[in-house]
Amino acid sequence: MSNDTFYKDHWVEIEADRLDRYEAQFVWGPRGNRLLEPAAIAAGQTVADYGCGPGYLSVELARRVGTAGQVQAFDINADFVKRTRDRVAAEGLSERVTVTHLQGDMLPLGDDSLDRLVIKNVMVYVDDPLASFREFLRVVKPGGKVHAIDSDFYMAAFDPIDVADWRAVLDAGIHAFRTPAIGRKMYGIAMQAGFTDVAVEVIAAPDTSGRMLNFIKNMAGYAREGGGHDEAIVSRVVDAASKAVADGTFFALNPQFLVTATV
Ligand SMILES: C[S@@+](CC[C@H](N)C(=O)[O-])C[C@H]1O[C@@H](n2cnc3c(N)ncnc32)[C@H](O)[C@@H]1O
Question: Residue 19: CB within 6 Å of ligand 1?
């Protein structure tokens, strides 16, 4: 994979162990309710889940829109498309969820066809965030909402990982993200795209259970694939985080930026 397009290629082709880590990482839980709240998802709506991953969010959205609603789920990874279809079917929700394997950045949807578009932890990977927001403005109907949730990877903090060590791993693996500081940028990008009513919230919920260890391991993998890393530092980071999770001293904070743009 080329470092220039790694941010996308590493999603189109995912190694089996990383796929399994995502299954564990993105399970829907009570934390998710707070992240979704500003989207005001309600019964009867047609909602897109852009970059659906393993499909937990699609299932949650399908429950919320009820029998009169519809969910349109999209992803660029074929395994995630299959996993989402399987997960939706296992929950008995296939009739209200359509899962599409997305080939580009434009959506195969007509103008004004959605009440809501939810994009969670995907804006950081899209080719052109401004073009994506413009596309969202096209497909969401007047009065509808685009709800984007994402990290800002320069604001994530971990302990007891050495600050300089973490920064070295982040720098070595940064090619895994198209726009690593997307969190702070989404408000301005949404305004630039033509939205006029844009609300922003930041939710910073500490993780002391070790959930973020999967993210640290993924970053170590990206750093190693980039080839410009220092193996001693990468190993030290993974070892320090793993040991802290095992002995109960792990602390991580990865603020989530919630940008809700009303059409
Ligand atoms: C970090 S996961 C988030 C999954 C899901 N939204 C969630 O929060 O559970 C990122 C997902 O976005 C998908 N993705 C990455 N780039 C994309 C793009 N340009 N268009 C659509 N999906 C993309 C990946 O395949 C992956 O499933």
Answer: no
The domain segmentation of the chain, as residue ranges, is 6-152+177-205+254-262
Which option is the CATH number for 6-152+177-205+254-262: 2.40.30.70, 3.40.50.300, 3.40.980.10, 3.40.50.150?
Answer: 3.40.50.150
pLDDT digits (tens, 9 = 90+) for 33-68: 999 999 999 999 999 999 999 999 999 999 999 999
Residue from 122, 124, 136 to probe ligand 1 pocket by mutation (most atoms less than 8 Å from CB): 122
Structure tokens at 144: 């509808």
For ligand 1, atom 2: residue with the closest CA = 53
Confidence (pTM): 0.95
Q: Distance from first CA to last CA of the chain, Å, rounded?
A: 38
Distance 250 CA to ligand 1 centre (A): 27
Q: Look-up: residue for tokens 């004004």? A: 112
**Predicted local confidence at residue 81, as pLDDT:** 96
Q: Are 219 and 174 in contact (CB under 8 A)?
A: no
DSSP code per residue over 174-207 = GGG-SSTTHHHHHHHHHHHHT-SEEEEEEE---B
> What dihedral do alpha carbons 93, 55, 150, 204 form, nearest 10°?
80
State the Cα–Cα distance between residues 210 and 241, nearest whole angstrom: 8
Pairing status of strand 157-159 against strand 251-253? antiparallel
Which residue's C-alpha comes closest to atom 13 of ligand 1? 51
Q: Is the CB of 185 under 6 A from ligand 1?
A: no
Mutate to test the pocket of ligand 1, among 76, 83, 132, 254 (most ligand atoms within 8 A of CB): 76
CA pair distance 55, 229, nearest whole angstrom: 33
